[in-house]
Amino acid sequence: MNVLIIGGGNMGRSFAESFLNAKVLTHKQLTVIEKDPAQIQELNRMKLGQVYNDYGDFISEKDLIILAVKPQDAYSVYPKLQPYIQEKHIILTIMAGISIQEVEQKLNTNKVIRCMPNLPCKIGIGVTGFMVSETIAQRDIDFVRKLLETTGASIQLYEEDKLNAITAISGSGPAYIFYFMDAMIQQTMEFGFTLTEASKIVEQTFLGTVELYKVNDLSCKEWINKVASKGGTTEAAISTFNQFNIAEHIQKGMEAAIQRSRELSKN
């Protein structure tokens, strides 16, 4: 399958690199359209497929077209791309907040896959939720899944609102983790550690905890109970978190994120 990526910025470039490194695509099977000269230079330096700075008849040779542009740039892409769209083309969009229906209408097609990758996809350990138009053949869905899984895990969804949820969970999720890490780093420095020391301590704590969670069947609450001995330091911290309803505030933040995602999808 021949693939075209429109947009060679951070996510488009990450996709291209992952596809080639995993040998799911060859250099000849991958094409990128990018306007920015600096990005073009970087794509060529990294040898990430054939790079063009504009649309052209070469699009007819492609099977899958990935829209890896910012949502606000979609309306400049649609009219340029639409004349080249053929019945065989499958469109994969990673544009947050833009529905399958809109892409179908703007590009006059009924073969659209909408997905929501997250930041760790850049290093191959992300998670991507995706939803497909009913007209797309299973073999094509399987191939797209194979592409997406070069960047981490994937999960197929069957309700578009679940993509709003994925945005609020894994899309925004890294920022939640960084927020908590930053609070721990700042307090660790208050305890007298340097920034380098504090960052390393917190980083390793998060890494070790996630790995521990992955290799066991215990729930988070069960792990908390294992760490928090009666009358100990951990119990003192957890009691303070509970006093200020930290868990509830985190959940309300996620609710705000999904609501905003729904609002953007309606615009």
Task: Describe what this molecule looks like in 3D.
The protein is α/β, with parallel strands linked by helices and 267 residues long. The chain folds into 2 domains: 3-159, 3-Layer(aba) Sandwich (Rossmann fold); 173-266, ProC C-terminal domain-like (ProC C-terminal domain-like fold, Orthogonal Bundle). It is 52% helix and 13% strand. It is built from 11 helices and 8 strands. It has helices at 10-21, 37-45, 74-81, 100-107, 138-148, 160-171, 173-190, 195-214, 220-227, 233-243, 246-266; strands spanning 3-6, 30-33, 50-52, 64-67, 90-93, 112-116, 126-132, 152-156. It has an 8-stranded mixed sheet with strand order 3-2-1-4-5-6-7-8, with helices on both faces. Helix 5 (138-148) links the parallel strand 7 (126-132) and strand 8. Helix 6 (160-171) packs across helix 11 (246-266) and helix 7 packs across helix 8 (195-214). The chain starts with a strand and ends with a helix. The mean pLDDT is 95.
